Amino acid sequence: MKQYKIATIPGDGIGHEVIPAGLKVLDAISGQHGFHLVCETFQWGAGYYKRCGEFMPKDGLDILRSFDAIYFGAVGLPDVDDTLPAKCFTFRVRKAFQQYVNYRPARLFAGVNGPLRNKTPRDIDFVVIRENTEGEFVQVGGWHQPDSAEGMATDVSIFTRRGIERVAHYSFRLAQRRRKRLTNVTKSNTLIHSLAYWDRVIEEVGQRYPEVTYQKMYVDNAAANFVLWPERFDVIVTTNFLGDILSDLGGAIMGSLGLGPSGNINPEKQFPSMFEPIHGSAPDIAGRGTANPIGAIWSGALMLEHLGEPEAARRIVESIEHTIQQGILPADLGGTGNTVEVADSIIHNLQES
User: Is residue 15 part of a domain?
Assistant: First the structure.
């Protein structure tokens, strides 16, 4: 029987509720498909920082390196500086393991009353591919005499040919497998050096995929189109910062950020990839049992697909859809189902199918 080593990091807040729910689903599907997940849990995050002064132990990356994938909840607490979780945990993991693809699908499930009137599941089904290790979030910059009248601050974006090319190839290949449309979301009319270079390299790569219809769209126009005509999109490739915003907008037009999954992917599998829901730690509702587990469960399906179990991944997503159609909805979708009930319904649908 095939085995995959999974590092499980619930993190903070509702991570301690949605990740166990996701693990129950993963355990159910693995038994049906002839593989086994060997999971080891690490209690790292903002809570660990409060106890130990760091978000993970000094050898944390070395520990994670030996795993096939990382299944992650969320990180952050109200009484911990909110600049630290990204700097000390998520960015460290993404960069150390060359997780240069941030993969965030958005689709409207039948049975969800999304916020866009007259839009159906046929209209909202796209993937935002966000460059995940360069761009605007490299944290190169600083403050100069911040308390003086001449105080100033800088953040420098970095775009390399290698970084742009590799995320572009991934995106065009994904478009080949989907509906053969790719949109490059940019702002090169005002960021005339960095994003003009981004556009140039994306377009050069696109010439190697003539079967994929390519278009360039400025981010302000893209945001409007997400709301007005989401059916225009198939695969979107964009920068770290722009993708961070647009992928949450994608989650919103699905009906709730609680539905959204994501993968921080090293496509070459030289390092473990990390899979997490997009909703954050939500400490205000932690411990109530009302958190939506679907984003975490769908993230688990993305993890299985990455590991080489596409049929198991497909069945999880189908079972999510069946649960929603049956009206078993968590509170953020207007229902009364708690975290465990929603996960158990998905497991039931897996068994029935």
Answer: yes
Average pLDDT value for the chain: 96
Q: Tell me how many degrees the CA angle 10-15-19 measures, rounded to the nearest 5.
A: 70
Q: What is the rounded average pLDDT of the residues 21-33?
A: 96
The angle, 0 to 180 degrees and rounded to 10, between the axes of the packed helices 15-33 and 310-325 is 120
Residue 195 lies in a domain: no
CB of 297 within 8 A of CB of 343?
yes
Closest CA to 341 of 299, 353, 326, 161: 326
Tens-digit pLDDT profile for residues 60-75: 999 999 999 999 999 9
Give the domain extent around 336.
1-99+268-353
What is the residue type of 278? I
List, in order, residues 6 or more apart from 276 with CB less than 8 Å away: 71, 72, 73, 74, 261, 262, 264, 296, 299
Question: Dihedral of the CA atoms 312, 313, 316, 321 (nearest 10)?
Answer: -130
* Signed CA dihedral, 276, 277, 282, 286: sign only: negative
pTM for the model:
0.95
Element (H, E) at 56: none
Query: DSSP assignment of 190-256, as one string?
Result: TSTTHHHHHHHHHHHHHTT-TTSEEEEEEHHHHHHHHHH-GGG-SEEEE-HHHHHHHHHHHHHHHT-
Radius of gyration of the chain (CA): 20
In a domain, residue 156? The reply is no
CA distance 24 to 148: 55
CA 351 to chain centre: 27
Other CB atoms within 10 A of residue 353 CB = 10
| CATH number of residue 305's parent domain | 3.40.718.10
Quote the number of domains for the chain: 1
Question: Does residue 280 lie within any of the structural domains?
Answer: yes
Alpha-carbon torsion 180, 185, 189, 193, what sign? negative
Residues 143 and 152: beta-carbon distance below 8 Å = yes
- For 33, 48, 73, 144, 243, the CA distances from 160, given in Å and listed in that order, are 41, 35, 30, 27, 17
